[in-house]
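On clarity, I found the account of how folds are encoded harder to follow than it need be. Since the whole study asks how a given chain folds, the encoding of that fold should be made plain. For the editor and my fellow referees, an illustration may be useful. An entry of this sort, consisting of the sequence and the corresponding C-alpha coordinates, reads as follows:

:::
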Amino acid sequence: MSNSPAITDANPDGKIILVVDDEFDVLSAYTMLFEYRGYRVRTAGNGAEALALAARERPDIIVSDYMMPVMDGAQLCLQWRADPALAAIPFILASAGIPRKDEVLPYDTFFRKPVRFEVLLEEIARLIAARAAS
Protein backbone atom coordinates (compact mmCIF):
# COMPACT_ATOMS: atom_id res chain seq x y z
CA MET A 1 0.00 0.00 0.00
CA SER A 2 1.28 3.45 -0.91
CA ASN A 3 1.73 6.28 1.57
CA SER A 4 0.63 8.79 -1.08
CA PRO A 5 -2.71 10.49 -0.45
CA ALA A 6 -5.63 9.37 -2.55
CA ILE A 7 -6.54 11.80 -5.29
CA THR A 8 -9.95 12.53 -3.79
CA ASP A 9 -8.41 13.18 -0.36
CA ALA A 10 -5.67 15.48 -1.66
CA ASN A 11 -8.02 18.11 -3.05
CA PRO A 12 -11.66 17.24 -2.44
CA ASP A 13 -12.85 20.62 -3.76
CA GLY A 14 -11.02 20.23 -7.08
CA LYS A 15 -9.29 23.60 -6.85
CA ILE A 16 -8.06 24.96 -10.18
CA ILE A 17 -4.39 25.71 -10.76
CA LEU A 18 -3.49 27.77 -13.81
CA VAL A 19 0.02 26.82 -14.92
CA VAL A 20 1.72 29.21 -17.34
CA ASP A 21 4.95 28.19 -19.06
CA ASP A 22 6.25 28.20 -22.61
CA GLU A 23 7.91 24.79 -22.21
CA PHE A 24 5.61 21.89 -23.07
CA ASP A 25 7.54 19.49 -20.82
CA VAL A 26 7.02 21.74 -17.80
CA LEU A 27 3.30 22.07 -18.51
CA SER A 28 2.98 18.31 -18.95
CA ALA A 29 4.88 17.46 -15.77
CA TYR A 30 3.00 19.99 -13.63
CA THR A 31 -0.33 18.88 -15.08
CA MET A 32 0.35 15.24 -14.29
CA LEU A 33 1.63 15.92 -10.78
CA PHE A 34 -1.08 18.40 -9.81
CA GLU A 35 -3.86 16.23 -11.20
CA TYR A 36 -2.49 13.27 -9.27
CA ARG A 37 -2.95 15.39 -6.15
CA GLY A 38 -6.56 16.15 -7.10
CA TYR A 39 -6.22 19.61 -8.57
CA ARG A 40 -7.87 20.60 -11.80
CA VAL A 41 -5.24 22.10 -14.08
CA ARG A 42 -5.49 24.65 -16.86
CA THR A 43 -2.42 25.52 -18.91
CA ALA A 44 -1.23 28.45 -20.99
CA GLY A 45 1.95 29.00 -23.01
CA ASN A 46 2.28 32.71 -22.19
CA GLY A 47 0.73 35.50 -20.17
CA ALA A 48 -1.75 36.59 -22.84
CA GLU A 49 -3.17 33.06 -23.04
CA ALA A 50 -3.34 32.94 -19.24
CA LEU A 51 -5.39 36.13 -19.03
CA ALA A 52 -7.79 34.84 -21.68
CA LEU A 53 -8.22 31.54 -19.81
CA ALA A 54 -8.75 33.30 -16.48
CA ALA A 55 -11.45 35.48 -18.03
CA ARG A 56 -13.41 32.34 -18.94
CA GLU A 57 -12.77 30.34 -15.76
CA ARG A 58 -11.29 31.79 -12.59
CA PRO A 59 -8.48 29.68 -11.18
CA ASP A 60 -7.87 29.36 -7.45
CA ILE A 61 -4.15 30.01 -7.91
CA ILE A 62 -1.66 30.69 -10.69
CA VAL A 63 1.85 29.28 -11.09
CA SER A 64 3.70 31.19 -13.80
CA ASP A 65 7.10 31.06 -15.42
CA TYR A 66 8.96 34.36 -15.59
CA MET A 67 10.61 34.17 -19.02
CA MET A 68 8.08 33.55 -21.83
CA PRO A 69 7.33 34.97 -25.28
CA VAL A 70 4.37 37.24 -26.12
CA MET A 71 3.75 38.26 -22.49
CA ASP A 72 6.26 37.28 -19.83
CA GLY A 73 5.57 36.48 -16.19
CA ALA A 74 6.38 40.00 -15.01
CA GLN A 75 3.86 41.58 -17.39
CA LEU A 76 1.31 38.90 -16.51
CA CYS A 77 1.78 39.49 -12.79
CA LEU A 78 1.26 43.25 -13.17
CA GLN A 79 -1.85 42.85 -15.34
CA TRP A 80 -3.19 40.11 -13.04
CA ARG A 81 -3.02 42.38 -10.00
CA ALA A 82 -4.49 45.32 -11.94
CA ASP A 83 -7.63 43.33 -12.78
CA PRO A 84 -10.12 43.53 -9.88
CA ALA A 85 -11.56 40.12 -10.82
CA LEU A 86 -8.12 38.46 -10.54
CA ALA A 87 -6.21 40.58 -8.03
CA ALA A 88 -7.01 38.46 -4.96
CA ILE A 89 -6.03 35.16 -6.62
CA PRO A 90 -2.62 34.00 -5.32
CA PHE A 91 0.25 34.34 -7.79
CA ILE A 92 3.38 32.19 -7.70
CA LEU A 93 6.20 33.21 -10.01
CA ALA A 94 9.03 30.81 -10.86
CA SER A 95 12.17 31.25 -12.91
CA ALA A 96 15.59 29.79 -13.54
CA GLY A 97 16.78 33.40 -13.42
CA ILE A 98 16.23 36.14 -10.90
CA PRO A 99 13.99 39.16 -11.56
CA ARG A 100 15.81 42.43 -12.07
CA LYS A 101 16.58 44.25 -8.81
CA ASP A 102 14.74 47.34 -10.02
CA GLU A 103 11.64 45.30 -10.84
CA VAL A 104 9.01 45.26 -8.10
CA LEU A 105 6.37 42.64 -8.83
CA PRO A 106 3.26 41.95 -6.73
CA TYR A 107 3.55 38.14 -6.62
CA ASP A 108 2.81 36.17 -3.46
CA THR A 109 5.77 33.79 -3.74
CA PHE A 110 8.85 33.53 -5.94
CA PHE A 111 10.67 30.25 -6.53
CA ARG A 112 13.94 29.65 -8.32
CA LYS A 113 13.69 26.75 -10.76
CA PRO A 114 14.02 23.89 -10.38
CA VAL A 115 11.39 23.89 -7.64
CA ARG A 116 11.00 20.83 -5.42
CA PHE A 117 7.47 19.67 -6.10
CA GLU A 118 6.60 19.00 -2.45
CA VAL A 119 7.67 22.56 -1.52
CA LEU A 120 5.54 23.95 -4.35
CA LEU A 121 2.54 21.87 -3.26
CA GLU A 122 2.87 23.07 0.33
CA GLU A 123 2.96 26.68 -0.80
CA ILE A 124 -0.05 26.21 -3.07
CA ALA A 125 -2.04 24.69 -0.22
CA ARG A 126 -0.94 27.48 2.16
CA LEU A 127 -1.91 30.26 -0.25
CA ILE A 128 -5.28 28.70 -1.13
CA ALA A 129 -6.09 28.22 2.57
CA ALA A 130 -5.05 31.77 3.41
CA ARG A 131 -7.28 33.16 0.67
CA ALA A 132 -10.22 31.03 1.85
CA ALA A 133 -9.73 32.29 5.42
CA SER A 134 -9.76 35.96 4.41
Observations:
- The chain has five helices and five strands.
- Residues 1-9 have pLDDT under 50 and may be disordered.
- The helical segments are 7-10, 24-36, 47-56, 73-82, 117-133.
